[in-house]
From TrEMBL:
<keyword id="KW-0496">Mitochondrion</keyword>
<dbReference type="InterPro" id="IPR009000">
    <property type="entry name" value="Transl_B-barrel_sf"/>
</dbReference>
<dbReference type="InterPro" id="IPR030851">
    <property type="entry name" value="EFG2"/>
</dbReference>
<keyword id="KW-0547">Nucleotide-binding</keyword>
<dbReference type="InterPro" id="IPR005225">
    <property type="entry name" value="Small_GTP-bd"/>
</dbReference>
<comment type="similarity">
    <text>Belongs to the TRAFAC class translation factor GTPase superfamily. Classic translation factor GTPase family. EF-G/EF-2 subfamily.</text>
</comment>
<dbReference type="GO" id="GO:0032543">
    <property type="term" value="P:mitochondrial translation"/>
</dbReference>
<dbReference type="Pfam" id="PF00679">
    <property type="entry name" value="EFG_C"/>
</dbReference>
<feature type="binding site">
    <location>
        <begin position="51"/>
        <end position="58"/>
    </location>
    <ligand>
        <name>GTP</name>
    </ligand>
</feature>
<dbReference type="InterPro" id="IPR009022">
    <property type="entry name" value="EFG_III"/>
</dbReference>
<keyword id="KW-0648">Protein biosynthesis</keyword>
<feature type="domain" description="Tr-type G">
    <location>
        <begin position="42"/>
        <end position="330"/>
    </location>
</feature>
<dbReference type="Pfam" id="PF03144">
    <property type="entry name" value="GTP_EFTU_D2"/>
</dbReference>
<dbReference type="GO" id="GO:0003924">
    <property type="term" value="F:GTPase activity"/>
</dbReference>
<dbReference type="InterPro" id="IPR041095">
    <property type="entry name" value="EFG_II"/>
</dbReference>
<feature type="binding site">
    <location>
        <begin position="116"/>
        <end position="120"/>
    </location>
    <ligand>
        <name>GTP</name>
    </ligand>
</feature>
<keyword id="KW-0342">GTP-binding</keyword>
Length: 823
């Protein structure tokens, strides 16, 4: 059985000298088995590591696991031996492709459930579903690059989550703590009530030989100590009193911290005035930690730390900050349920207390994987109660019941069996019973104490509860796929089913007229990885066509179909309409990734206390949803592209025979109705949609003219703004104070900035930054395929850009025929 090593960091006296000088060393406490560990909800942290690509997420995670005792040796992304990047594609490319979950202890009593997410924009769905189940985030930033494009995206995606920022790569040439902190404030906190709090700041030391200062550790603002690391010994930390060079910066940082905290925390104000007698140096570390924790949980402050993960600097303070400042599951946001009238609150013992029922266990399935040995496995987050192996579980999203097999705690590419998963935990479900019973986004309900206690729950309330599903962005690229021979068709279809079950941001469309199958994804790299998995992992013998843009169609007019009746007491009537014409008096059900919805009017005939039909309402709705998806996927009349942004409304007068045995007949009838309604619409009521991207460019000022000419001419772009890139630190009129008068946060100057006035040297950031412009535009995806080489030519290789999906927009008339001809 897999076991975990646990370390405690403790201070060891160094002998003569300062009373607080010493060395932190790892003390072996023995092994701790997670299957028998007692989990205390207040001491659980569910966190996600999010950042721009190459900011150091996986490197930081690897050091966390080492210092927690999970790893005996530190892995490296470049050599392909990290624990969380365990897929062959990840190790060969040196990037994170899918999120990896792992649990580990810290400081003996805390349990950290961590999800390491990808940084590449093509895998943004991995970030979205991780954010669905975590309680807080650690944002990693590159100290050289500052706030990058993907950092802005993940910050917006996690807007409501409490955060810690870790400014990484402080050892690199051109690193700037000052610039990165102010970049954070300017882009994310200006105009908001959220403010940064510097937990530590960089400590530089000048070696005996050489003239350049070397980053060696951090200054602890809470405790007033310097922490330095030895690069050759990752377990060695030296704690010392502050030297004269650091003392002034420390005093100003601590004063700024207390002023920031006291704006929100009346208890700290009272402590400062009474206990500390108005002296910043006398405010206790305990009071500061308590205040930072309280305000971090409320998302009013963001603790900021720094380090260099590759050099093993600053990771232990980051781990301490995670358990000290980020919320436990009983302090985090409550899950959003489909029924707002059901009372939900936190109980310190069982997690979420739903409908005041202590026995109900609610879990959310957020990811599905296929293990070559164990088969299908489902990642779940437990929100309330306890989940036991062998329990009978009800899937409220599908209306199915099944029995659970073994439960596991994930550890990246491996896992550990457990008997029970408690509230606040992230676990894995296994067994043959889940093969066709759970999908990403499903809500699972069971009894915490009884193996089969579902009968004790309220059928109309508790068994219909669902956690709101994960939002899936629409794919923007597609590639045709076909079997090499007819005998390979079945294996290709099975492999595609496995692929899209694991990654819901991939989708399959089929053209009924041509028989062509198209695999759709979020980007070129996304599809490249999917193709690699199909051939090498799933052993599909297939051929691929050329990469193409994923177009959609939509309707511009509502179409109604008269009531359908037959001799078997079936009765349905429906309408298909653009989303802009939706009604608020209907129950709404999302239909996959194309922004389509099913609207169900209330049916009073079946609103009795006793359900009389042989099939459940959930089964009926699921059958109608399946019909809607099939009908809308068949496509429109312009080019047979799937329909986007449509709603199908089922009127409330539908009836079914009492002796109906299964949902297949419902599926057949409603599908034919939907297809007929769409066929009745004339061609001129269909319009073509294309993916439009947000384009952000950073280019030299001298190249702005030619780049703009290319964008507005050849690229059909709409220019949104042209701005100067961030002002250099040395030209800031008040370089160490934020420019927001309501938030005067002190940020220590960089040691390199101080040296400029002495040595005459200039940072590369200072040399070029005033000469660059940021252009933001909206541009059709079709027009920026292979844009990298064009921009390189226009800017002599000095320009860079980032694209992000914006929306599906109507194709203009002057481009419509050109696109249809190309297709």
């Amino acid at each position: 059985m897999w076991k975990q090593s646990v370390y405690r960091w403790t201070r060891v006296r160094a002998g003569a000298g300062s009373a607080c000088s010493g060395r932190l060393s790892a003390i072996w406490l023995g092994r701790k088995n997670l299957s028998t560990a007692t989990f205390s909800l207040p001491k659980v942290r569910n966190i996600g590591i999010i950042a721009h690509i190459d900011a150091g997420k996986t490197t930081t995670t690897e050091r966390m696991l080492y210092y927690a005792g999970v790893l005996k040796h530190i892995g490296d992304v470049d050599t392909g031996d990290t624990m969380t990047d365990f897929l062959e594609q990840e190790r060969s490319r040196g990037i994170t492709i899918q999120s990896a979950a792992i649990s580990f202890p810290w400081r003996d009593s805390f349990t950290v459930n961590l999800i390491d997410t990808p940084g590449h924009i093509d895998f943004t769905f991995e970030v979205i579903r991780a954010l669905k189940v975590i309680d807080s985030c650690v944002v990693i930033l590159d100290a050289v690059a500052g706030v990058e494009a993907q950092t802005e995206k993940v910050w917006k995606q996690s807007q409501s989550k409490p955060k810690i920022c870790f400014i990484n790569k402080m050892d690199r040439m051109g690193a700037s703590f000052n610039h990165t902190v102010k970049d954070l404030m300017r882009k994310f906190m200006q105009g908001t009530t959220t403010k940064p709090v510097l937990i530590n700041f960089p400590y530089y030391r000048k070696p005996l030989t050489g003239s350049d200062y070397v980053f060696q550790g951090v200054i602890d603002v809470i405790n007033g100590k310097s922490l330095t690391w030895n690069q050759e010994d990752p377990d060695a930390i030296v704690i010392n009193d502050l030297d004269s060079d650091s003392l002034e910066q420390y005093n100003r940082c601590r004063e700024s911290m207390i002023e920031t905290l006291t704006e929100y925390d009346e208890e700290l104000v009272q402590h400062f005035l009474e206990d500390a007698e108005g002296d910043y140096s006398k405010v206790s570390a305990q009071s500061l930690n308590a205040s930072i924790r309280k305000l971090s949980v409320q998302n009013k402050v963001v603790p900021i730390l720094c380090g260099a993960s590759f050099k093993n600097i600053g990771v232990q303070p980051l781990l301490d900050a995670i358990v000290n400042y980020l919320p436990s599951p009983i302090e985090a946001q409550l899950p959003q349920l489909n029924d707002e009238n059901i009372p939900v609150k936190y109980d310190p013992k069982i997690g979420c207390l739903v409908n005041n029922n202590k026995n109900i266990c609610i879990a959310f399935a957020f990811k599905v994987i296929t293990d070559p040995i164990r088969g299908k496995q489902v990642f779940v987050r437990i929100y309330s109660g306890t989940l036991n192996s062998g329990n009978t579980v009800y899937n409220s999203s599908t209306g199915e019941k099944f029995k659970l097999g073994k439960l596991l705690v994930p550890h990246a590419g491996t896992s550990q069996p457990v008997n029970v998963l408690s509230a606040g935990q992230i676990g894995l479900l296994t067994g043959s019973t889940i093969e066709n019973s759970i999908s990403t986004g499903d809500t699972l309900i069971t009894h915490s104490l009884k193996k089969d206690g579902l009968k004790s729950f309220n059928k109309k309330k508790e068994l219909t509860l669902k956690i709101n599903p994960i939002s899936i962005p629409p794919p923007v690229f597609g590639v045709s796929i076909e079997p090499r021979t007819l005998s390979n068709k079945k294996s290709m279809e099975n492999a595609l089913d496995t692929l899209i079950t694991e990654d819901s941001s991939l989708s399959i469309t089929k053209n009924e007229e041509t028989g062509q199958t198209v695999l759709n994804g979020m980007g070129e790299l996304h599809l490249e990885i999917a193709k690699d998995r199909l051939i090498n992992d799933l052993k599909a013998d297939v051929e691929f066509g050329q990469l193409m843009v994923s177009y959609k169609e939509t309707i511009t007019l509502e179409t109604n179909l008269e009531t359908f009746e037959n001799d078997n007491d079936y009765k349905f009537s429906l309408s298909v309409m653009p989303n802009t014409a939706t009604n608020s008096d209907c129950a709404t059900y999302p239909l996959g990734i194309n922004n389509n919805y099913l609207l169900m009017e209330k049916n009073t005939k079946y609103d009795d206390n006793e359900w009389k039909l042989q099939v459940s309402l959930e089964s009926i709705i699921n059958s109608i949803m399946a019909s809607c998806i099939v009908g809308l996927q068949r496509g429109g009349k312009l080019a047979n592209f799937p329909l986007y942004g449509c709603s199908i409304k089922i009127k409330g007068d539908w009836t079914l025979p009492l002796d109906i045995e299964g949902p297949q007949e419902i599926l057949k009838i409603t599908r034919n109705l939907i297809l007929k309604a769409l066929d009745d619409l004339p061609t001129n009521n269909y319009t073509l949609l294309e993916p439009v991207m947000d384009l952000s460019l950073i280019i030299p000022q001298s190249d702005v003219g030619v780049v703009l000419q290319d964008l507005t001419g050849a690229r059909k772009a709409q220019i949104l703004s042209i701005e100067d890139e961030s002002c250099p630190i040395s030209s800031d009129p008040s370089p160490n104070i934020s420019t927001d008068n309501h938030n005067r946060i002190y940020v220590p100057p960089d040691i390199s900035s101080t040296l400029h006035t002495i040595t005459g040297k200039k940072n590369a950031r200072d040399t070029n930054i005033n000469l660059k412009k940021i252009i933001k535009a909206k541009v059709p995806l079709r027009e920026i395929i292979a844009y990298t080489s064009k921009l390189r030519s226009l800017s002599q290789g000095r320009g860079e850009f980032n694209v992000e999906y914006n929306d599906m927009d109507k194709v203009t008339n002057d481009r419509l025929q050109s696109i249809l001809n190309d297709l």
